[in-house]
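Anyone opening a protein record will find just a pair of labelled lines. With that in mind, the following record should read easily:
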Amino acid sequence: MSAETSKETLGFQTEVQQLLHLMVHSLYSNKEIFLRELISNASDAADKLRFEALKDDKLFEEQPDLNIRVEFNKEQKTISVIDNGIGMSRDEIIENLGTIAKSGTKQFFEKLTGDQTKDSSLIGQFGVGFYSSFIVAEKVEVVSRRAGASRADGVRWISTGQNDYTIEKVDRPPRGTKVILHLRDDVDEFLDGFRLRSIIKKYSDHISIPVLMPKEGDEKGDETVNSAKALWTRNKKDITEDEYNEFYKHVGHDFEDPLARVHSRVEGKLEYTSLLYIPSRAQFDLWDRDNRHGVKLYVRKVFIMDDAEQLLPPFLRFVRGIVDTNDLPLNISREILQQNKTIDSIRAGITKKILDLLSNMADKEPEKYKKFWDEFGKAIKEGIVEEAPDKKEDLARLFRFSSTHEHTDDQSVSLSDYISRMKEGQKEIYFLTAENLTTARNSPHLEIFSEKGIEVLLLTDPIDEWVTTHLHEFDGKSLRSIMKGELDIDGLESGEADTENKENDDKSQNDLAKKIQDALGEKVKEVRITRRLTTSPACLVSEMHDMGRHLQQILQASGQELPDMKPILEINPTHPLVMMLEEKMEDKQIEDWSHMLFDQALLSEGGKLDDPAGFVKRLNAIFMEMGEKQD
């Protein structure tokens, strides 16, 4: 088949078209980052060749020296980035350049607002890599051959960044990839050797293989522009803040500076170096637990794998960076990593490093920690399920919640903060779970606590339900849901115990509770007089060891079948509605009023009515009755 007949025109995936549209409209104010992205991709290609050549050194094709070349041509208005890394086959080019096969893509495009300023930061987080070429290029050409394939299996890919691209087989003697950018008229500034060198030094000095450019003037040959030394192997005192940040953007595929980092070297029985970063923002695929997350693993500075999830627990999956060790074989596999004592030791060591970093940040830089918690707090909370029992309390010290102490939407209250404000004689940390903060703050369950001035934590993340089932106490204080069981909070400061209401065994009220229970039938487990309400007529509670109402709603929404757990309806005997209901003891309408009490108690905690039409019908009937009485 001739080259002409092998040429095909294929359409971009819809998401790629959207992404390219953003590129062409110059969402990046800093156009020079295109070179950083292309060099970063070339470096990854070299790492992958090194790794695959561990099993088959013929892939080096008698050219073991890896490098990246950057060339420019003023007459043709082109910039080329050439590597002799792993290269790509035809199918790989289509997969890598024609589609976006990454988790979180849908969520990414849903978050785009059309506001260029906001969208530029979002697109930076997404890590677009190669597509940044279209910031400066009106046409991009990619020529590649995979290592080990014949020279006749080269592939050429060309696109103008519109709706489609062409692809064809070509003869390509060298392995690796050449990306040729045909520049737009308004970016001639990049057709300058000094400018390109300064960009490489600024963004890619940390790349561990040489980045070459032709020497200036009449001199022949190439010169190495970058330091070509793995950054993590250098002395910390010799690494600048900018160099640390640029290395993060390379390994994290991010466009923003990291929030924090920790760079350490362990020597002795076990030897490894780690350079780990906390991103400024959560990645789009952070909540896809099936997707691989993790740091890059190197053995003796040789890249082994991306996303080595065995090196960190899942609740730290947002961490980016590298681990380089001398204590693993070069042919280590993912399967071997899962049952390896060296890996277990490294995992324990770097997990402690990250948690110490966060603990220090929480103590000394609360504003920065607040930013971290807003982005990654839900992931950190997952650790309470995964961590060993003796580590749970240390982890819980990092947790932050909303509470009745601070009337803001911030999650800024730690468990230690709460304990420091506990009332004299208070033995428990009280909390309430709800779907959102508005529902939580307006919950009738808070009424007696507000009256007595007792702080309550407001837990509104879905993960909080699992947190409270795995964290039973903190600093010697047990955690207690105010929505479960009967309360005993008399004797605490600020508010005197009402002994009359506490032991209210008035026969008429107990008879009323029984009447309501008979009216509600199978809807409730029990109806009883409450001591936790001051202004609301009723609320729903669970038995102490039953599953909470909010957790039931979460599980039901996910389609899980649950055992039949009926709530307890508690009624406030001092509320006018309940007192009015007591007067209707023999009234035939008591059934409607009982159901109304139950339904409004359910609605007040964010629940859904089983029979909304029946609720409206009963409400209308009560309004009609009240209207008739007024007439």
Observations:
- The chain has 22 helices and 22 strands.
